[in-house]
Design goal:
about 70 residues; mainly alpha; 3 helices; about 60% helix
């Protein structure tokens, strides 16, 4: 999880000027997939906090990167 411990929110990844667009998308997709797996585990009775809001933010950040505004 290369984003773990470095970024507190998906928006921080989007704003990180040291990353190119493709790397940002890769990190956000990894984060999204990890959260989906976590939520599935939570649904199966494992302990944890519901992170649906974070998942929504990750998806929003991905949409912003995948559909950049024309310049």
């Amino acid at each position: 999880m290369p984003y773990f411990g470095k970024y507190d929110s998906p928006e921080e990844i989007v704003r990180d000027e040291t990353l190119d667009r493709e790397r940002k998308i890769e990190l956000l997709e990894q984060w999204r997939d990890d959260k989906k797996a976590y939520m599935r585990a939570s649904d199966e009775g494992m302990e944890g906090t519901d992170r649906t809001e974070l998942l929504r933010k990750i998806k929003s950040a991905l949409r912003a990167l995948e559909d950049p505004a024309p310049q």
